[in-house]
Amino acid sequence: GRVAEQMGNLEHALSAYENALRHNPMSLSGLTQVAGIARIKENYPKAVEYFQRVINMQQDNGEVWSALGHCYLMQDDLQKAYAAYQQALYLLPNPKEDPKLWYGIGILYDRYGSLDHAEEAFSSVLRMDKDFDKANEILFRLGIIYKQQGKYQESLECFDRILRNPPNPLAHADIWFQIGHVYEQQHDHVRAREAYERVVADNPGHAKVLQQLGWLYHQDGSSFQNQELAIQYLTKSLEADPADAQSWYLLGRAYMAGQKYNKAYEAYQQAVYRDGRNPTFWCSIGVLYFQINQYRDALDAYSRAIRINPYISEVWFDLGSLYESCNNQISDAIDAYARAAELDPANQAIAQRLALLKNAQATGQALPAAPGPQDVHP
User: Fold this and answer.
1) pLDDT at position 40
2) DSSP string, 6-64
3) pLDDT band at 5 (very low <50, low <70, confident <90, very high)
4) Do 71 and 44 touch, CB atoms closer than 8 A?
5) What Å distances lie between residue 261 and 99, 219, 246, 249, 256, CA to CA?
6) So what's the pLDDT on residue 99?
7) What mean pLDDT, rounded, does the chain reach?
8) Does the pLDDT value for residue 345 go beyond 70?
9) Where does the protein principally reside (predicted)?
10) Domains in the chain, start-ordered, CATH in brackets?
11) CA 243 – CA 56 distance, rounded (Å)
């Protein structure tokens, strides 16, 4: 079995080890070798079964607990993975010098959404062994984590280090996409566009990057704002992936910017048909109805958005504005603005409008025209 394994013939090695186990079912080395080969072949249920048999005979084997943790992780059984890694940390003689163990723990924390712990685990792997065989994958994962933590410079450094040699199954285009997204988070629209255009050069039908480019051309803050180009890119994105509700929604936003209300309505309908539980979509439909003075329909759309998610300040602000515009319902407007102010206490526009209304209610002063509705940043 060992000879076959050394020669890379895993099938032959496996049958030899299994044959040996028929003669001696309690052979620790035989059980461990079968489990190890099953793990390499990604047959995780079999690997778990054999590692478990080893543990039953040798409960203080930290290395096997570590391997078992990895197998549970690959099966998405996070509770059992966590318990196995805890045992490994307790039993291994030098757990702080075991990069494979910390790589697994990093993935576990990442899956749990515990970003600080995941970052610590992955960084420790690279400190222990800069030539670790999964180093590029770790750099990619760290790049994503730093992006989510708002550590944009660190994120860009990670992506830059793997640009020439991306981890499987990723390609250069995937890394450029991430770089573009970091620049977009930093509101560096020019660099974001350049990165996204590199992706399109490699992969003209990349639906997600076409969507991002469309949104970039739509946004107010970009120096190259162009609604026609936004519509072109979003339409191309939908040709590549017509099922993406977000692309339909963004297309509606681009049409709204050009006051093409009928086309915006059609695009929004396509979006809610695919994802009817998205409060942002309903908020924008409310804005559309508000703009064309269909106040009852606007109220229905905002109410839907609030039922789905009552914690979006823009929806409450729009509702306040709607109550002001429609029959001058000042008490209802004050309630809605107060809720918006609770959710976004730093927003001066909300605070000022609320103070103005309360003052007008107390003194009977005439009010300036109600503010227009705000859309949500998707």
Assistant:
1) 87
2) HTT-HHHHHHHHHHHHHH-TT-HHHHHHHHHHHHHTT-HHHHHHHHHHHHHH-TT-HHH
3) very low
4) yes
5) 57, 18, 18, 13, 6
6) 96
7) 92
8) yes
9) nucleus
10) 171-275 (1.25.40.10), 301-378 (1.25.40.10)
11) 49
- For residues 190 and 178, is the Cβ–Cβ distance under 8 A? no
| DSSP secondary structure letter of residue 313 | H
CA nearest neighbour of 211 among 264, 183, 249: 249
Q: What is the pLDDT of residues 294-321, one digit of tens each?
A: 999 999 999 999 999 999 999 999 999 9
Burial (0-12, 13-18, 19+ Cβ within 10 Å), 49: middle
Share of the chain above pLDDT 70, in %: 93
Count of CB atoms situated within 10 Å of the CB of 166: 20
* Range name among 17-21, 135-139, 222-226 with the lowest pLDDT average: 17-21
Lookup: tokens for 265: 């309505």
Cβ partners under 8 Å of residue 163, min gap 6: 172, 175, 176, 179
Distance of CA 317 to the CA centre of its chain: 27
pLDDT in tens, 200-251: 999 999 999 999 999 999 987 778 999 999 999 999 999 999 999 999 999 9
42, 185, 197, 200, 306 from 223: Cα distances, Å: 49, 16, 16, 21, 34
CB count in 10 Å sphere of residue 99: 20
Structure tokens at 202: 């490699």
Cα 343 to Cα 336, 338, 350, 354: the distances in Å are 11, 9, 10, 13
Distinct helix (H) and strand (E) counts, the chain: 21, 0
Q: 3-class DSSP state for residue 226?
A: coil
Reference 185, options 157, 205, 212; nearest CA is: 212
Would you say residue 105 has pLDDT above 80? yes
